[in-house]
Amino acid sequence: MTILISTLYPLLCMMLPCIFYIFLQKRKPGVCLSGPHFIWVLIFLLYLYMVLEATGIGTIWDIGKYDGIISVDKINLIPFTDITGFSQSLNIIMFMPLGFLLPFIWKEFRSPLKVLLAGAGYSFGIEFCQLFNNRVTDIDDLIMNTLGAVAGYVIWIIFVCMFHPKGGKREISLSGKEAAVYLVLSMAGEFFLFNWRWMVRTFFM
């Protein structure tokens, strides 16, 4: 039961803003969300949840918990000063599904530049949120995560060339900015809604 609650609570915090967005979009005239597209959206959101859980981003509820609002001594802005091969490889691997799923689900992201910007933007958001929970904010993580997103895009290109030489069939999306909205809302939901101290007091004390 403890494991279930500790998993469902952060998942709901992240998912609720995204589900609310889907609900609002579906109410618009002429907007239709196909079943297959909805399933892929859920897979995409679950992936984002796993990334946020793995990185352990800070939240608004962490502000003021430590000595200062921001741990300046844990900010590294100089690239490649402390390279650990295994750790950096994990950062690349972690963002490869992002680079694959974005163009696979949304035609609007079938551009290497857009995937690169999405990977860099999402990674930057993670690093920024880590300023508030006493974790290291590292430019190396930003670089490697971005490279991982680009590598995922390359894998998507290979996948298309092998199995869908004509580009494959595109599912109907809710809007041209749907994927970008999920990226923003997933992180915002985790940052503003997830309060682990409230969860501990409510469910485990």
Tell me what the structure shows.
The chain has about 200 residues and is an all-alpha fold. Helix content is about 65%, strand content about 0%. It has seven helices and two strands, in the order H-H-E-H-H-E-H-H-H. It has helices spanning about 1-25, 35-55, 85-105, 110-130, 140-165, 180-195, 195-205, and strands spanning about 75, 135-140. A two-stranded parallel sheet has the order 1-2. Helix 1 (about 1-25) crosses helix 6 (about 180-195), helix 2 (about 35-55) packs across helix 6 and helix 4 (about 110-130) runs parallel beside helix 6 (about 180-195). The mean pLDDT is about 85.
Largest sheet entry: 2 strands, parallel
Instruction: Report the sheet-strand fraction.
Output: under 5%
Low-pLDDT residue spans? none
The tally of strands reads 2
The secondary structure category is mainly alpha
Strand numbers in spatial order across the main sheet: 1-2
Euclidean distance between termini CA atoms: 14 Å
**Tally the helices: what do you get?**
7
State the share of residues found in helices, binned by percent: 55-70%
Estimate the global geometry from the Cα principal axes: globular
Mean pLDDT: 85
Q: What is the gyration radius calculated from CA atoms?
A: 18 Å
What is the H-and-E element order? HHEHHEHHH
